[in-house]
Design a protein that fits this description.
outer membrane lipoprotein receptor (LolB), chain A, 13-stranded antiparallel sheet, 4 helices, alpha+beta, 17% helix
Length: 258
């Protein structure tokens, strides 16, 4: 009897210790998103703020460096919302994003609206907070083939590719997910709709609250630098004034960086 219980305990221990990478391969993108959701459901941070050093490579090869202050929150009513204050806060310039809409602000006033949003938001925030069906709908505009999933390796770690059948496919819209951490590490897409395909790499991951934060983002087009982002002074699960996410209250909202 003791031998039987010992064998059973050994089997249970081995199963518990099995790496996540050894799980059955997901067959669809929805399954990958479900794994991401389940890994952090109820634990991922609902608010985030940080300072970002943004380096933009112009077509003439020169660089422009600007400081952005970014505020992110998730609510059931609005989903994930991202406010970016660009440059001097007193100038009142920036952008407000959701997964499907964009509002451009200049001098504290609405300057333009666009019927497309930020494809990052469903994959870095929304997926952990909401039903997968909602995340799938938010990703519709990215035109990712959710029926194609491939295994790959990224920076020495196992990854799933959603939207391509091979790591050699660099033309299909896709995103890569670290198998063990269940976070996005790479995206190939055209942000905001029509435009050039960008290779977007999320790096410098650090533990944050009970989730993760990529602190360095690099975007390239045909192998050439387009934009890089370096985060600092990040904090999560802190109160953010709701008016920060109102275009009408852009300048009046209590900003954490002022």
């Amino acid at each position: 009897m003791q031998h039987r219980w010992f064998r059973l305990a050994t089997v249970i221990a081995c199963v518990a210790a099995a790496p996540l990478a050894a799980q059955p391969a997901p067959k669809t993108g929805a399954e990958v998103l479900q794994r991401m959701h389940d890994a952090y459901a109820g634990r991922w941070y609902k608010t985030l703020r940080f300072v970002q050093k943004t380096t933009i490579r112009r077509r003439d090869g020169t660089d422009t460096v600007i400081t952005w202050h970014e505020s992110l929150r998730y609510t059931d009513a609005h989903g994930a919302q991202l406010r970016i204050d660009q440059g001097d806060l007193s100038a009142g310039n920036g952008v407000l994003y959701t997964a499907d809409s964009t509002w451009v602000v200049r001098g504290g006033k609405l300057a333009a609206t666009r019927p497309n949003g930020n494809e990052f938001l469903p994959l870095i925030e929304g997926v952990y907070m909401q039903p997968v069906a909602r995340t799938m709908k938010e990703l519709d505009s990215a035109k990712i083939d959710m029926q194609r999933v491939a295994r790959a390796e990224w920076q020495g770690r196992p990854a799933w590719i959603v939207g391509a059948s091979s790591p050699n496919d660099t033309t299909s819209t896709q995103f890569w997910v670290d198998v063990d951490r269940n976070v996005v590490v790479r995206m190939l897409l055209s942000p905001g709709g029509p435009g050039p395909m960008l290779d977007i790499r999320l790096d410098g991951y650090v533990p944050l609250e009970k989730g993760w934060l990529a602190t360095k983002i690099v975007m390239t087009e045909s192998g050439k630098p387009r934009q890089s982002e370096e985060y600092s002074d990040w904090k999560a699960n802190i109160p953010l004034d709701a008016e920060l996410f109102s275009v009408e209250k852009w300048n009046e909202a209590r900003h954490w960086a002022k």
